[in-house]
Write a structure and sequence with these properties.
Distance between the termini of chain B: 60 Å
Number of domains of chain A: 1
Largest sheet of chain B: 2 strands, antiparallel
Strand content of chain A: 5-15%
Number of strands of chain A: 4
Structural class of chain A: mainly alpha
Helix content of chain B: 55-70%
Order of helices and strands of chain B: HHHEEHEH
CATH architecture of the largest domain in chain B: Orthogonal Bundle
Number of helices of chain B: 5
Structural class of chain B: mainly alpha
Order of helices and strands of chain A: HHHHHEEEEHHHHHHHH
Radius of gyration of chain A: 23 Å
Largest sheet of chain A: 4 strands, mixed
Largest interface: A-B, 62 and 45 residues
CATH class of the largest domain in chain B: Mainly Alpha
Oligomer: heterodimer
Radius of gyration of chain B: 23 Å
Number of strands of chain B: 3
CATH superfamily of the largest domain in chain B: Winged helix-like DNA-binding domain superfamily/Winged helix DNA-binding domain
């Protein structure tokens, strides 16, 4: 049995239909961390489906097991016979999916590395110009534009300009810093790099076009939620308005849909209800099992 | 022992404040007014700063004269531009609190805030 058509059909479902459904759903904004998990699970299951389809196409005559075992061995995992018999595993069945998986891992690693280098360079300069504020545990940058940002990762820094310190009240500043601290503590740069790597690799796919922006937005919402645990809604919302309004507005270039800041603002000020626990657990288990679905499609139990 | 980065910052601080070429000896003497630091250490770190491009140097006789490659203000401006994503790089190395908005989006934020205020007042 050749499972390639089924696998490609599954990949199309995940790569084209699923993102459209997810974009129209309301629950990701209500449970942003879960939303990030589901978006990333879609990218993983898509890559695996494509890799397995490639293995099937390379050895259409055989059932997948031989190719799969070979693949697992080439990755240094898997049990069973120590070395697959070269007679049963043909090279393309291993090489093709390995290329798919390698390209994906490479794209993500490339993003992580590039962002890490850029942060290291930024941090090197920041530590010379900025002034550490031990009370807030932030670096204050002497600049007339009000702004706040963070460098996540190792030796993280949270940066506010002194104009932002002057513009915001002490409580507003605390709320902004808490939001940035959530990015650092949650290591939000890692899921973002995974989303960017996938987006760069499968550029034209609807899933790839949306995953980066959606993951970025949901991570912002998740950081907002953490700030809102300690600070009133109005304080964070006002801080956001003040910081955005204190900068020169950019020219409008007709972006599609409402901007992330507007979505976040409405969410901060509106009622925030977490989705029903039943929906939450269903989504969580769907996200957890999604990576294994392509394997089920390729090797139905009992075949 | 202090971190190397702190000494780098101390040295850059001198060059930025002075705004003129200076020798390693001058920097060492100035730092030594607050704390003691070895001449060789400052020489090494000044060399690092030169190789990283933070300092430029010219030779005068047998000694090197160093100066800051750019002003402190230029550094801060470049960092802020990077941090607030004015360069529109798609690599999310840095996470900004709020992106640059256009006038309509700012209006939308203001409206949302006013509506929320009216709800709590009413």
């Amino acid at each position: 049995m050749n499972a390639a058509p089924a696998l490609l059909g599954y990949a199309a479902l995940v790569g084209v239909t699923a993102p459209r459904v997810l974009l129209r759903s309301a629950w990701p904004h209500r449970a942003p961390a879960l939303g990030v998990t589901v978006w990333l699970a879609l990218t993983v299951t898509f890559v695996l489906a494509v890799a397995l389809a490639a293995a099937q196409l390379a050895s259409p005559a055989e059932h997948l097991h031989a190719g799969l075992v070979g693949l697992l061995h080439s990755c240094g995992v898997g049990s069973g016979p120590a070395v697959p018999d070269p007679g049963t595993t043909d090279a393309p069945a291993v090489a093709l999916p390995a290329v798919v998986l390698g390209a994906w891992a490479g794209a993500v690693a490339h993003r992580l590395l590039r962002a890490g280098l850029r942060r290291a360079r930024h941090r090197d300069r920041l530590d010379k110009v900025g002034v550490r504020c031990p009370r807030l545990r932030v670096t204050v940058l002497p600049h007339a534009t009000p702004g706040a940002y963070c460098l996540p990762g190792l030796r993280a820094r949270i940066v506010v300009s002194d104009a932002a310190v002057r513009l915001l009240s002490a409580r507003q500043l605390d709320a902004v810093v808490e939001h940035e601290r959530a990015h650092v503590a949650g290591r939000h740069h890692l899921p973002l790099a995974a989303a960017e790597g996938f987006g760069a690799l499968f550029r034209r796919l609807p899933l790839a076009r949306h995953v980066r922006d959606q993951v970025a937005l949901l991570l912002e919402m998740s950081a907002d939620d953490r700030a809102l645990r300690r600070h009133p809604d109005a304080v964070l919302a006002t801080a956001m308005y003040e910081l955005a309004g204190g900068r020169t507005p950019r020219g409008a270039f007709g972006a599609a849909g409402p901007s992330p800041a507007v979505l976040r603002m409405k969410r901060i000020l509106g009622p925030r209800r977490a989705p029903h626990p039943a929906l939450r657990s269903a989504l969580a288990s769907a996200a957890a099992s999604a990576p294994f679905l392509p394997l089920l499609v390729a090797c139905p139990p009992g075949v | 022992m202090r971190r190397l980065g702190e000494l780098e910052a101390e040295i850059m601080d001198r060059f930025w404040r002075w705004g003129r070429p200076a020798t390693v000896r001058e920097v060492v003497d100035d730092i030594n007014r607050h704390r003691s630091v070895a001449y060789t250490t400052v020489t090494t770190v000044t060399g690092i700063l030169f190789h990283k491009g933070h300092l430029t140097r010219t030779r005068e006789g047998r000694i090197w004269l160093y100066r800051a490659a750019a002003t402190r203000e230029a550094y801060a401006a470049a960092l802020m531009e990077d941090g607030l994503g004015a360069s529109e790089d798609r690599t999310a190395a840095l996470a900004r609190f709020v992106e640059n908005l256009d006038a309509d989006e700012l209006d939308a934020l203001r409206t949302a805030l006013h509506e929320a205020e009216r709800r709590t007042d009413g």
